[in-house]
Structure formats: C-alpha cells, structure tokens
Specification:
Number of strands of chain B: 1
CATH class of the largest domain in chain B: Mainly Alpha
Largest sheet of chain B: none
Distance between the termini of chain A: 25 Å
CATH topology of chain A: MetI-like fold
Order of helices and strands of chain B: HHHHHEHHHHHHHHHH
CATH superfamily of chain A: MetI-like
Helix content of chain A: over 70%
Shape of chain A: globular
Number of domains of chain B: 2
Oligomer: heterodimer
CATH class of chain A: Mainly Alpha
Distance between the termini of chain B: 26 Å
Number of domains of chain A: 1
CATH superfamily of the largest domain in chain B: MetI-like
Number of helices of chain A: 12
Radius of gyration of chain B: 26 Å
CATH architecture of the largest domain in chain B: Orthogonal Bundle
Chain lengths: 270, 312
C-alpha cells in the first residue's frame, strides 16, 4: 500500500474508473426496466420502471433458469464429491504419481472446450446422453473438477500432517479422519470451490450449445443466445433475462467476497 | 522434530506399515473417481479428436456407424481452404489484441489500486463484476450497446456531435474484429487486475523505501523494482490469458456469430461450425487439433513459468 497525498482525489478517480467499467452493467439493468416494443429510444435512466420485460423473461425463460439451476447444483455436488477426496490424497499421502496427476490436471485446463464437445457429441449420441441433465452436469464438471482439486489441495497441503496422524493414533480410520477433521478444517477452500463451480456451470454456453439438439433441456445461456441470434425487436426482455442470469454473480460478489478473491488468485498460481 | 520420529519403536513401525496398507485402499477409493473422470472427459476427447481428424466422420457416420480412414485429407482440405488462413490470422490478432489490452489496463488499475485511499477495497471488488457474469450475458449487453441504430454508444457519439450517422460496430467487416477484441478486453480486465494486484501486494514496502533513497520513484521505481519483482506473476497471467483467449467461443458467437462475412472467424469458431453446423466432425477435429497444438505450446511455457514462480 502506498500513502497518497490527496486521498479523496484518488477516490474520485477510482469512482470514475468503476463507473466507466460498469456502465454496460448499468445499461443492462436500465434497458431491462424500459417498456418493451419501441426500443430505439431507450432513455438514459429508468425513470418510469416497467416490469413488462421481466414478465416476458420469466414466462419465456423461467423453465430455462430452473434447468440452469439444477445443472449448476448437480455439477457442484459431482465436482466436490470427486474433487475433495482426490485433493486430500494428492496433498497428504506419499502417493507415487502425485506430480503426474497434478501435471495432468494443469494440462487439462488448457484443453479447449470445443475439443471436448467434438468428441463427447458422438459418445453422448451413442449413450443417449444428448439433451439430458446428467449429460450436461458431467460435461460441465470439466471446469469444476480440476479447479476444485487444485484449490482444495493447495489448502490441504498447508495442514500439518500431525492433526490427521493424531486422529489415526486415536483409532480413527483414514476415512473417518477425512470426514471428521480434513473436511471441516478445509471448509473455506471447499466453499470457494463450490461457489466457483456453480458459477462456471451456470455460465456454461459451449456444452449447452453443442450437447443439446432440442428444446427439452435448455439452460438459460442458450435461451439468451437464441434471443440474440435472430433480429431483436424487444431488448427489454432480453436484458431482463440477462439480469436474471447475472443474479448468481451479483449475489456471490456481495455475499461471499472473500471467497471470490481466493478463487481468482487460487486458480492462477497453484 | 519430536523424539518419537527420531527413534521409532517397533510398535510405531508396525502401526505405520498397517497404515500404509490401508492408505493404498484409501488412495484407490479417494483418487480413483477423479482419475477416471479426467481420463473420460479429458483423455478420451483428446484421443478421439486425433483419430477423428484422420477419418471421414460426417452425418453419414451417425447412421451407418462407419468412418472411413482418410489419412491427412481433412488437414489438407482445411488448410488449403480459403477460410483457414483468415481464421488463423484472426485468432492471432484476437489473442494478441485482447492480451495486450487486458494486461496493460489491468496493470494500470492494479498499480492504481495499490494506493491507499477511501473505498479503494470496495471499488476494487466492484470491478470484478464483468468477470463473474456469464460471457453470453456480456455478449448480449454489448450487442445492444454497440447496435448501429439504437445502441447507447452510437447515440452518445451522435449526441455530442462526433458522428452524424450510426457506426456499424458489429456489422461492418472492417470494424467487427476490433469491436470483438474491445469487448474481450473489457471482460479480461478484472482478472488481470486481481492477479497483478495480488502480485504487487507481495512486493515488500522496504524495497520501495530503499529505492526512494536512491532516487527511484514513480516510473523509475516501477521499471527497476516493480517489474522485475512481478515477472513470475506476469508470465503466469499472460500465458493463462493466451490459453483462455484461444478457446473463446461465447463472445464471438454472441456478438457476431463469426461474421459478417467471416470477419471474426477464429479457429475455435471454425471448428464449431465445421462440426456442429456442417456436421463434418472430421474436419472440425482437424481444426481443433491445430488449436490443441497451439494451446500446448503455451501450456509448456505456462508450466515452466509456473515452476519458476514456485521456485522463487
């Protein structure tokens, strides 16, 4: 931290930066509250807020929002159940191939999603997983699982081995020691991993686009894409859907700020 | 060090070997599902893509189940096609433009937010928002902002009298790529700011105090203290940025659908269109394999940079 001479001048400048950077988000909210129909002259402020856009959004996209929610929650469960035990072994055991597995996880994050979608499409077609919620949960976990393993392992590695050993000496098996000690003390990393997995999956567009062919299972991201893929004549309902799709991000930023910072840095540098 | 670890008793040794045995069990139980998942959802797709790249794998394959081996035909057809060189050039311009913009602005903001002033922490967390909302939402918002007729940007520019006609930001072949890059820069600024700010916080204040005594302040302090100390974080940020930018699909499809007239076509969008719009999975795989090779080159750079960052 650097001391500055005129702190409030810096605050004013900071406010200006934030105002410019967040203008698109303001515009999204503003446009969502405009009356639908004649959109060419969206006013600069929502002086007469109109909820027609939200009514259209909920009636047309409500089901898709629920689909997104189910897939995101499912992916959080699948990712954490697979990742937390794996992170524990990779952090605390003298496992011979630890470095190889970590290397594979780092590399996996570099593989473009389109490669995965290309191959999964035909496999899913054979297995009947196209247009299915389990299919999307599994595919979407490709972002959550490597991230959750890395972030949980980073924390578990810093746990002193003695606290687990103490439990083992007391007669608890390794599995019980895991549930009664490792999981509770790793709570922060697990919450960060869960929140980000939710956000990754909620935001997924690629798998929604490629692994569904009908309207049976349609996440809200695909709903928005279908809106803007054609000529748009009612921007207020598109923007209302966009606002609703941004709610998890906004809630996360307001309610779980410390986890957001942990997730941003944790994902990048081991 | 405790005395027990220096002089293990027989009982402790026995205990340890039984622990090892049960650990092997636990390892399989705990790590097995993760390894299986990685193999099925990362290993299999990569192998399958390499194979599909050598096959005539198209719509007929889904009915007959046959995908004849065609050697390098998919690659030669794709590479000699008119679109490939354009997509490759666009991928290059999109990646370089996005990274340079995100990094320069992210760095400027990170340095600015290192100052101590009222609300600095609050404002810094607010700028994360563009990074957290779904990419397709950002694309939708920017499509409306950049709309030729009713978009806020054109209305503002016309209002202040800079232009008298709406600029076709996303529908002109000469402007579309620049607009898409600008939107991607906007999306990437928060991530760069957070990571670089974290790196800056790790530089001890004493270095700046010592530098100030030698006359290194302002730009010179940045050049001789900040930059060298930050280098490991910088390389990780840049390489991760490149890898993420190479695979961007949401923003381009959302803003321009890779148009107009392929003006914003990249390798990722081309691979998507070949596989999922022309249903030529063989050629789509060929393009995405080229993309994998480019990503892997950067992955190697990343791993080396990461190791150096950990070593230091």
């Amino acid at each position: 931290m650097t001391e500055v001479r005129r702190p409030w001048l810096n605050t004013a400048f900071g406010l200006l930066i934030v105002a410019v950077l967040l203008f698109p988000i303001y515009w999204m909210v503003n446009a969502s509250l405009q009356p639908g129909g004649a959109t060419l002259d969206t006013s600069w402020f929502p002086l007469n807020p109109d909820l027609a856009g939200y009514r259209t959004a909920i009636s047309e996209q409500g089901g898709n929002l629920v689909t997104s929610l189910v897939i995101a929650l499912g992916s959080v469960v699948v990712s954490l159940v697979i990742a937390i035990p794996a992170a524990y072994v990779l952090a605390q055991f003298d496992f011979r191939w630890t470095n190889l597995v970590l290397f594979a996880i780092l590399i996996s994050q570099m593989i473009p999603g389109i490669v995965i979608a290309n191959a999964l499409y035909s496999a899913y077609a054979d297995l009947g997983l196209l247009n299915s919620i389990p299919g999307l949960i599994l595919a979407d976990s490709t972002s959550g699982i490597p991230f959750a393993i890395l972030i949980c392992r980073a924390l578990m590695e810093s746990l002193p081995k003695s606290i687990v050993e103490a439990a083992l000496v007391d007669g608890a098996g390794p599995v019980r020691a895991f549930f009664s000690i490792v999981v509770p003390v790793s709570r922060n990393a697990i919450i960060t991993a869960g929140l980000f997995t939710f956000l990754f999956t909620w935001s997924d567009f690629l798998f929604a686009l490629t692994l569904t062919t009908t309207e049976d299972v349609r996440p809200v991201t695909l709903g928005i894409y279908n809106y803007i893929g054609a000529y748009v004549n009612d921007w207020s309902s598109v923007m209302a859907t966009a606002v609703l799709a941004s709610v998890p991000a906004i809630v996360l930023l307001v309610a779980a700020q410390k986890y957001v910072a942990a997730g941003a840095t944790g994902g990048a540098v081991k | 060090m405790t005395t027990t670890t220096e002089r293990p008793t027989t009982a402790a040794t026995e205990n340890r070997s039984s622990m090892k045995r049960s650990n092997r069990w636990v390892t399989v139980l705990f790590l097995g599902p993760a390894i299986l998942y990685l193999a099925l959802f990362f290993g299999y797709p990569v192998v399958k893509n390499v194979i599909m790249g050598f096959q005539q794998y198209d719509i007929a394959t889904f009915f007959t189940g046959e995908a004849p081996w065609v050697g390098f035909a998919n690659y030669t057809e794709v590479i000699t096609g008119a679109l490939f060189s354009k997509a490759l050039l666009n991928t290059f311009l999109f990646t370089i433009g996005s990274i340079v913009g995100q990094f320069a602005l992210g760095m400027a903001l990170a340095v600015f937010f290192r100052r101590r002033f009222p609300l600095s922490g609050f404002l810094r967390s607010l700028i994360l928002l563009p990074w957290l909302i779904p990419l397709i939402v950002s694309s939708a918002v920017w499509r409306w902002l950049l709309d030729t007729d009713g978009g806020a940007l054109n209305r503002f520019l016309m209002g202040v009298g800079v232009v008298d006609q709406g600029i076709p930001w996303l529908t002109s072949t000469s402007l579309a790529l620049i607009s898409v890059i600008a939107v991607n820069i906007w999306i990437g600024i928060p991530f760069n700011t957070v990571i670089l700010h974290g790196g800056l916080q790790g530089i001890p204040d004493e270095l700046y105090e010592a530098g100030a005594l030698d006359g290194a302040t302002g730009w010179r302090a940045f050049r001789h203290i900040t930059w060298p100390m930050l280098r490991p974080v910088v390389s990780v940020t840049l390489v991760l940025g490149v890898v993420y930018t190479l695979k961007v699909l949401d923003i381009i499809l959302g803003l321009t659908q890779a148009g107009p007239a392929n003006a914003t076509q990249t390798l990722t969008t081309q691979s998507y269109q070949l596989s999922f719009q022309s249903f030529d999975f063989g050629q789509g795989a060929a393009v995405s394999n080229i993309l994998i090779v480019i990503s892997l080159v950067f992955a190697v750079i990343y791993l080396r940079a990461n190791r150096r960052a950990v070593d230091e």
